Amino acid sequence: LLRTGELDLALSHDALDEFDADPRTTSTAGGSRRAGIELVHLFDDPMYVAMHAGHPLADEPTLGLAAFAEEPWMLATTQSCPDSRLFLQACHAAGFEPRIAFQSDDYPAMLGFVAAGVGVALIPDMVMRGIRDDVIVRDLDPPAKSRPILAAFPGDYRSAPAAAMLEILREVSDAWVAQRPALVSA
């Protein structure tokens, strides 16, 4: 829709993959241009592991992903979310194939299963604002790859409202990153 001019602006947490179909990339003042789409990086959304409060590893401040190799996993569905691709890449890098117990794009549902002890999940920082009291979140060491949050525009045109919206998005993004609470329990 951006390429056809039906949209002036889109937000994406997957644009690096979504728009990389054309390997030609050129730098612009606001970001990069891929396949006729200008991408502007707003911030990175780190990923954490979530487990139920009674999990045997809940008291560990930082864990390697391999510590959860035998656990059942709650996973964002692969069709619409980069989180599952980031998760699978991280598991393979840690040397294991995860056992997927539940898939959904509904993070509250996933965290409900985590709270019930059905399994563990890799969740983005943005989801942690609504984290349940019966779910513990921990840093990973090494950290899982963050998902980029980007604004996308038609490559040759940026309307005045879209430019104004980008400035608002930058302000909100900067404030979001600056006030990220220490939600990962120590």
Commentary on this structure:
- The protein is α/β, with parallel strands linked by helices and 186 residues long.
- It has 2 domains: 10-44 and 147-178, no CATH class; 47-140, 3-Layer(aba) Sandwich (D-Maltodextrin-Binding Protein, domain 2), CATH 3.40.190.10.
- 24% of the residues lie in helices and 29% in strands.
- It contains 4 helices and 11 strands, in the order βαββββββαβαβββα.
- The strands form 2 sheets. The chain has a 6-stranded mixed sheet, sandwiched between helices. The chain has a 5-stranded antiparallel sheet with strand order 1-11-4-3-2.
- Strand 7 (72-75), helix 2 and strand 8 form a beta-alpha-beta unit.
- The radius of gyration is 18 Å and the shape is elongated.
Notable traits:
24% helix, 186 residues, 4 helices, alpha/beta, D-Maltodextrin-Binding Protein, domain 2, 11 strands
Write the layout of secondary structure elements.
Layout (H helix, E strand, L loop, with lengths): L9 E3 L2 H4 L6 E3 L4 E3 L2 E9 L1 E6 L9 E2 L8 E4 L6 H12 L5 E5 L3 H9 L4 E5 L10 E6 L6 E8 L5 H19 L8
Parallel strand pairs: 6-10, 7-8, 7-9
Antiparallel strand pairs: 1-11, 2-3, 3-4, 4-11, 5-9, 5-10
